[in-house]
Amino acid sequence: MSKLISVRGPHARGLDNNIRIQWNMGNSCNYECVYCPEMLHDGSKPWLNTKVYIDTIEKISSHYNALQQRTDYELIGGEVTVIPGFEDIIRKISEYNATSSVYTNASRTINWWSKAKEYMDNVILTYHPLTQEKEHFLAVVDEIKDDVDISINIAGVGGQVEELGDFAEQIRDLFKHSNRNRYYNVSISVKTLYMKLLGRHSKQETWYNYTDNELDVLRKPGIKPRPVEPQPEPTEPQEYVEPQIDTSNMTEFKYEDGSTKYVQNHQIINEGLNGFKGMKCHLGYESLNINASGDVYSSWCGAKNFGNISEITNWDLPKGYTLCPFDYCNNISDIAISKTL
Predict the structure, then answer these.
(1) 46-64: per-residue pLDDT in tens?
(2) Residue 282, C-beta contacts closer than 8 angstroms, at least 6 positions apart
(3) Gap between the Cα atoms of 286 and 288, Å rounded
(4) Rounded to whole angstroms, how far apart are CA atoms 126 and 140?
(5) CA–CA distance from 69 to each of 31, 38, 148, 268, 295 (Å)?
(6) 210 C-beta neighbours (distance < 10 Å), count
(7) H, E, C per residue of the chain
(8) C-beta neighbour count of 163 within 10 angstroms
(9) CB–CB of 173/188 below 8 Å?
(10) Residue 109, Cβ neighbours under 10 Å: how many?
């Protein structure tokens, strides 16, 4: 294979000069999925006072607004929608003309979603088949599908993957007449579940021993290829035209031979494309991360640290690139940060 010369995630390829703030707001969760590491749901990093969250939003947004950058917040946990005052938090984000992307298991009531959706821009839903009812998950999707941008992940529980592939198509049918999320553009994927040895930069092992049929489902693109429109019968033989896929939400890989490959996030690790050791990683220019303790980093690998949200008064962003020291990059957010030779 030709040598990799650059990587750019969808955020970096956008036209806007935005800064992405991926924020782990705590690790309390109303589920205890067996394939989820305890440190992501055991409540050892409890929710902070709502005022701390709001003051942090004001501090970060004011700083980047002064630099003519808009802030895009990605809110993760734990299950962030159960944070007391979460509606006030996302309302504060909207007041700064910032965007919010909420990662959630969709467990809140339909009544809650009918009100909270007003302050959300993007929602990334995950269906957990060992815990959730399909009917409620479908009802939440139906409630918000015309108001926010949606992406959907389905936890690929071994022994259920083929059935879950059918459920993905059932979910997709809800978007046939959506005014906001289009049937062929919305990403709905059954995700490979890994051991998630957090902090490790080694090759990840899958949680389940998947069958060949299950692997076929897990490798399917989350964005459904648009069928080629029927054409009049040609008078001469025609070349086959591949169905077109929207690449705007994919990560771009460029190679020394001039070729370019676009890959969906959930497929990058599957295909072993997450090795960037020795490349220049543009940490801190495109994103900041806040962990569950309130510590602010340039990325989840922890290469640059700026302090804690309760103490920061000045921001000292990186003034140069960082050479990637790791064999593997196992965080999707970090993978999407621009990398060059």
Answers:
(1) 999 999 999 999 988 988 8
(2) 12, 321, 337, 338, 339, 340
(3) 7
(4) 12
(5) 36, 36, 22, 29, 22
(6) 18
(7) CCCEEEEECCCCCCCCCEEEEEEECCCECCCCCCCCCHHHCECCCCCCCHHHHHHHHHHHHHHHHHCCCEEEEEEECCCHHHCCCHHHHHHHHHHCCCEEEEEECCCCCHHHHHHHHHHCCEEEEEECCCCCCHHHHHHHHHHHCCCCEEEEEEECCCCCHHHHHHHHHHHHHCCCCCCCCCCCCCEEEEECCECCCCCCCCCCCECCCCCHHHHHHHCCCCCCCCCCCCCCCCCCCCCCCCCCCCCCCCEEEEECCCCEEEECHHHHCCCCCCCCCCCEECCCCCEEEECCCCEEECCCCCCCEEEECCCCCCCCCCCCCEECCCCCCCCHHHHCCCEEC
(8) 12
(9) no
(10) 12
pLDDT of residue 202: 66
pLDDT in tens, 227-237: 877 767 767 77
Give the span between the Cα atoms of 297 and 6, in whole angstroms. 23
Locus of tokens 């989840």: 300
* Locus of tokens 């821009």: 121
Which phi and psi angles does 139 have, rounded to 5°? -65, -40
- Tokens at residue 80, please? 């962030």
Separation CA 126–CA 258 (nearest Å): 36
Which residues touch 279 (CB under 8 Å, ≥6 apart)?
4, 7, 323, 324, 339, 340, 341
Task: Dig out the tokens for 234 from the structure.
Answer: 């040609």
Distance (Å, whole) CA 39 – CA 279: 30
For residue 301, how many other CB atoms are within 10 A of its CB? Answer: 21
Q: How confident is the model at residue 184 (pLDDT cuts 50, 70, 90)?
A: very high
Q: Identify the residue whose tokens are 């139906």.
A: 142
Q: How far apart are CA 44 and CA 293, in angstroms?
A: 10
| CA dist 47 → 71, 128, 239 (Å) | 22, 23, 58
- Domains present along the chain, CATH in parentheses: 18-230+237-248+286-320 (3.20.20.70)
